[in-house]
Amino acid sequence: MLTAGILFHTFIMLMANTMAHPNFVLIITDDQDLLLDGLVPMKNTLKLIANEGKTFQNAFVNTPICCPSRSTILTGKYAHNTGVTNNTVSGNCSSKYWQEQHEPSSIAALLKNSSGYLNFYAGKYLNRYGFDDVGGTKHIPKGYDWWIGLKGNSRYYNYTLSVNGTAVSHNADYLTDVLAAHSLDFLENRAPDKPFFMTIAPPAPHAPFTPAKRHENAFPGTKALRTPSFNETPSDKHWLVGMTPTTLPANVTILDGIQQGRLESLLAVDELVKGIITKLKDSDVLDNTYIIFTSDNGFHIGQFTQPWDKRQPYETDIRIPFLISGPKIPKRTLTKYPVSAVDIAPTILDLADVNIPSSMDGKSFKSQLFSSAEIPTNDFIFVEYWGEGAPKTIDARCPWKGDDELSECSLDQWCKCQDSRNNTYSCIIELTQSQQMKFCEFEDEQAFRETYDLMIDPYELKNLAYELSEDVVRRYQDIVRKFKTCQGRNCYTLE
Ligand SMILES: *[C@@H]1O[C@H](CO)[C@@H](O)[C@H](O)[C@H]1NC(C)=O
Ligand SMILES: *[C@@H]1O[C@H](CO)[C@@H](O)[C@H](O)[C@H]1NC(C)=O
Ligand SMILES: *[C@@H]1O[C@H](CO)[C@@H](O)[C@H](O)[C@H]1NC(C)=O
Ligand SMILES: *[C@@H]1O[C@H](CO)[C@@H](O)[C@H](O)[C@H]1NC(C)=O
Ligand SMILES: *[C@@H]1O[C@H](CO)[C@@H](O)[C@H](O)[C@H]1NC(C)=O
Ligand SMILES: *[C@@H]1O[C@H](CO)[C@@H](O)[C@H](O)[C@H]1NC(C)=O
Ligand SMILES: *[C@@H]1O[C@H](CO)[C@@H](O)[C@H](O)[C@H]1NC(C)=O
């Protein structure tokens, strides 16, 4: 009787456990924009996630560059608290400090520690992951049971994966397809009694913008989007954007080709999404699985005469796709509720009923998921960026050769640099029902400011910073200053 009682009790516990703990699939693409048609090729993704759930129309990253942004997604902490400020080890990208200080409290590690989640990761992790100076491909971040980590930055062919700590090189296999195969393998062979958390991080549509062979020329004649800001003279923008040339050349075939490659490279991601969701459905777990689709930052192509990159505070670079479906989320809903990358980790923990550590800077938006009503908002999004100087990335044929205050200056970008040390800035976006104001301040010799009224000027054509009253400027500066040093729960209430 006693044994039966204990067994019954265990059974009830197991049932409760299964019901209380949903599964998660988090898909993070690389450099996928929202505003330059980045979601247009994703027909299956829109049908299977957006139409089955909720689209957050005001979703942002807190820093528009891969490694720092991914570190924020994984930890729920702003870059000033992860210490990850750029894509190099000296900027704490995948550094020993990161491994010791932050990996033990990533979403995966916390889900495992509190609720025994089975954790899977496949794809690009952090740009410096897998190199010898940070432990090589043997290193498996704490908390993962099934680890398929890409060594280094995004590639499509000729790359090395750490498969559970063993280096496996591929030459001719298209990475997105290899990640899809590993994901299906996991879903087929995982221990079925445990809740799971999968992160899948495909390389698309990052440079070199290579589609799978079967998708080459799927979108012939595609042109870079001629937004109202395309080739717009940057007369009221900060120093870097105002650098010469301030008009794009007549022949921008290269920009059009990049747009085409980006859209085509996303088709394999769209197939990956479809494959995973089909498998979840066939395994009868789709109903208990939250699926989140997003990107690590946006992208610009030709806006304000900038060639192509991210790293700027403009909407093209900081706005990202954000789709979520799952248990009890109403179908086909849109919301303007503002969310940012830092909120992803606390929201996942909240949905899993796991305690959110007080050291997390982000806020759970769980309560916004289940309502189909539009909720009034009054919130700030915070964005910070540290400009880079890297003489190695300056083409020797450009006039700025060797300047260690500049970086990413190439001949095919007409020597217009994509970054500089003084491209260091912090911004807030104030989002209420009646206004959307962006305020940015640069740490350059001019303490340059940019302000846009996004409600009436979504393309950021007119910088209002020097027309604001002193009081308004002071209020914004004060909020920015508080965000820059905020930590944990004190990032919630800054006014
Ligand atoms: C990493 O960040 C921490 C905290 O910001 C800092 O103390 C440390 O010096 C950084 N490490 C490197 C290698 O820059
Ligand atoms: C893991 O869980 C234990 C006990 O529940 C707790 O004491 C510890 O702080 C947790 N570790 C982390 C990194 O959250
Ligand atoms: C990775 O390790 C897990 C846990 O040990 C194992 O179940 C899985 O089969 C391994 N995956 C691969 C691709 O080797
Ligand atoms: C991959 O590497 C092989 C051998 O070094 C080379 O022949 C091939 O062109 C490379 N493929 C790509 C797409 O770079
Ligand atoms: C435009 O530039 C591309 C190289 O970027 C070149 O292949 C093409 O021939 C040029 N087109 C014209 C019309 O000059
Ligand atoms: C990355 O950040 C570190 C720490 O702030 C800095 O020393 C380094 O110069 C930065 N790298 C680049 C390329 O700017
Ligand atoms: C930004 O840095 C560049 C490169 O050192 C310099 O030429 C320029 O004057 C600086 N601009 C401002 C506004 O600080």
TrEMBL record:
<dbReference type="Pfam" id="PF00884">
    <property type="entry name" value="Sulfatase"/>
</dbReference>
<dbReference type="InterPro" id="IPR012251">
    <property type="entry name" value="GlcNAc_6-SO4ase"/>
</dbReference>
<feature type="signal peptide">
    <location>
        <begin position="1"/>
        <end position="20"/>
    </location>
</feature>
<keyword id="KW-0732">Signal</keyword>
<dbReference type="GO" id="GO:0008449">
    <property type="term" value="F:N-acetylglucosamine-6-sulfatase activity"/>
</dbReference>
<comment type="similarity">
    <text>Belongs to the sulfatase family.</text>
</comment>
<keyword id="KW-0325">Glycoprotein</keyword>
<feature type="domain" description="Sulfatase N-terminal">
    <location>
        <begin position="22"/>
        <end position="354"/>
    </location>
</feature>
<feature type="modified residue" description="3-oxoalanine (Cys)">
    <location>
        <position position="66"/>
    </location>
</feature>
<dbReference type="InterPro" id="IPR000917">
    <property type="entry name" value="Sulfatase_N"/>
</dbReference>
<dbReference type="InterPro" id="IPR024607">
    <property type="entry name" value="Sulfatase_CS"/>
</dbReference>
<protein>
    <recommendedName>
        <fullName>Sulfatase N-terminal domain-containing protein</fullName>
    </recommendedName>
</protein>
<dbReference type="GO" id="GO:0030203">
    <property type="term" value="P:glycosaminoglycan metabolic process"/>
</dbReference>
<keyword id="KW-0378">Hydrolase</keyword>
<dbReference type="GO" id="GO:0005539">
    <property type="term" value="F:glycosaminoglycan binding"/>
</dbReference>
<dbReference type="InterPro" id="IPR017850">
    <property type="entry name" value="Alkaline_phosphatase_core_sf"/>
</dbReference>
